[in-house]
Amino acid sequence: MCGISGWVDFERDLRQEREIAQEMTDTMACRGPDDQGLWIAPHAAVGHRRLAIIDLAGGRQPMVAEGEEGETAVLSYSGEVYNFEELRAELSARGHRFRTRSDTEVVLRAYLEWGEDLAGHLNGMYAFAVWDARSEELLLVRDRMGIKPLYYYPTPHGVLFGSEPKAILANPLAQRVLDAGGLRELLSFVKTPEHGIFSGMYEVRPGQVVKVSRDGIGKRRYWRLDAREHADDVRRTVETVRGLLDDIVARQLISDVPLCALLSGGLDSSLITALAARLLREQGLGSVRSFSVDFAGYTENFKPDLTRSTPDTPYVHELARHARVDHTDIVLDSSELMDPAVRAAVLRARDLPMGIGDMDSSLYLLFKAIRGHSTVALSGESADEVFGGYRWFHDREAVEAGTFPWLASAATAAHSGAELLLRDDVARLANLRGYRDERYREALAEVPRLPGESGHERRMREVGYLHLTRFVQILLDRKDRMSMAVGLEVRVPFCDHRLVEYVFNVPWAMKTFDGREKSLLRAAGADLLPDSILQRVKSPYPATQDPSYDRALHGRAAELLQRPDSPAAALVDWDRAREIAAGPPSPASRAALERLLQLDRWLRQYRVELAL
């Protein structure tokens, strides 16, 4: 993994700006605790913080390629390329010579061979910057699914860039401004491609190359989802899914540091864990370690709610026994979830007040505990988006609602609780319904279609596309920020673009051939999992049910609402917020008060200027 940063300016000598460039790089220390480097030329500064995973001794960055006339290209790279061994062999056959075993050098040599077309050759999760010293051009490249983040901020004579906004904000040229468009995006619960929320900041779109030169900034998509005829029958489709998963997990087990699996007891994580365990045993490498999160007293006092019908832990333990993995429960209590230092760390990791309270804090604490044992973890994230696992995929009313289905589902209605807080004038200005409608129409206009496709099949292709391009990014961002805040690399096998492309084009009737959600995935893993997990209904990431958490949350909000100097008062109706804080706990009140506390801390800590 790693963190990257940099600065290109065609009108100044950046060798005189080393201190600022170093400050930008230092903000990425959490993403790369093992090493750091900074390369500077007159018009480019390229920084790197390293989390060493492959070739611990040889993969230092920024990595520089040299030719007959000196330095030719400089790479700062974050992520993993899982087909680097095949690419290395191909590039060697083309005359390239390698000094290290790292996938970083493979990416650098791939650039020298294929230029900006290199990304089409890569299988993996990555975000990287290449400075071509010959042409004085910068390439910013992001993986197809957007697993790894990459932001940029155009300046009058160049650009600032970094893995996270904090790297860019460390440069005085970057303004910390939230305008009306940023506020809308912040509260919409929809991830708009390229939107950076801070005014003037952009995110490289998944599957995109951004080129920066003296002529300006150009953008090109090197990958997007296409509509293709699906010729395989159910049996062949299940076999293909299983074959892909076998190959994907095998590739993602490669690591020179300790590796583990994240296990929730659901179908997705259980299948990844069981596959990893089987593959490691076959290679004579022992068993895989697994970790899960739990809350003190959660299983014993569990109460079913709108989204969770069963607790995770019994299923976690059953899978651990069945797959013979070395499992550890990470048990948290409410005092840890409400620890001010933990909540500050979560906001610092996010750079934005977009968290979901205890679910962010618990994920951060889970990853922090895991980092004491492992540096790499496999996750079941994104299977629901790929295979159609969320309940609203199967809710006709939500599917046909004429908006993003997750916004129409009762299961996620609590997220709208944050809107309860807005002052009336701010709510009118934000016009979140209009903003979401506009983003929805934009997304639908992108959907690829097959000739003659109609009815429910056509609509479910649209729903799948919305999730793979607008919803999954929310969860991938969260997992990346919480894991990299403690220097843990999380790999997501279900985001392999080969699997995504294949399953996207499977007809919906075949994806639900047994009348259940994720029919293909269940069939593909039937030989590896106990029946209880194969039949378990989708249960999202757990949230604490401890009443003391809600009491503490309401209490902290009430304390804040006694402070007239809070910058959040410019956005929040103080009287309405007091009513919510004084009222009974509910999913909507929890969402609203979590957002209130985050907004206050963010506006103060990041010194954000409101330009509404």
What would your notes on this structure say?
- The protein is α/β, with parallel strands linked by helices and 612 residues long.
- It has three domains: 3-221, Glutamine Phosphoribosylpyrophosphate, subunit 1, domain 1, CATH 3.60.20.10; 234-400 and 472-535, Rossmann fold (3-Layer(aba) Sandwich); 547-610, no CATH class.
- The chain has 24 helices and 19 strands.
- A hairpin with a 2-residue loop joins strand 2 and strand 3.
- Helix 2 packs across helix 3 and helix 6 crosses helix 7.
- The chain is globular and about 70 Å long.
- The protein starts with a strand and ends with a strand.
- The mean pLDDT is 95.
Q: Helical stretch count?
A: 24
Runs in which pLDDT lies below 50 for 5 or more consecutive residues are none
**Main sheet strand line-up:** 2-3-1-9-8-11
Q: Sheet with the most strands?
A: 6 strands, antiparallel
CATH architecture of the largest domain: 3-Layer(aba) Sandwich
Radius of gyration: 24 Å
Count of DSSP strands: 19
Could you name the CATH topology of the largest domain?
A: Rossmann fold
Question: What CATH first level of the largest domain would be assigned?
Answer: Alpha Beta
Number of self-contained structural domains: 3
| Percentage of residues in strands | 15-25%
Average pLDDT, rounded to a whole number, is 95
**Oligomer, anyone?**
single chain
**End-to-end separation:** 37 Å
The CATH H-level superfamily of the largest domain is HUPs
Shape: globular
> Structural class of the helix and strand makeup?
alpha/beta
Helical content stands at: 40-55%
InterPro entries: Asn_synth_AEB, Asn_synthase, ASN_synthetase/amidase, AsnB_N, GATase_2_dom, Ntn_hydrolases_N, Rossmann-like_a/b/a_fold
GO molecular function, one term: asparagine synthase (glutamine-hydrolyzing) activity
Keywords: Amino-acid biosynthesis, Asparagine biosynthesis, ATP-binding, Glutamine amidotransferase, Nucleotide-binding
Protein name: asparagine synthase (glutamine-hydrolyzing)
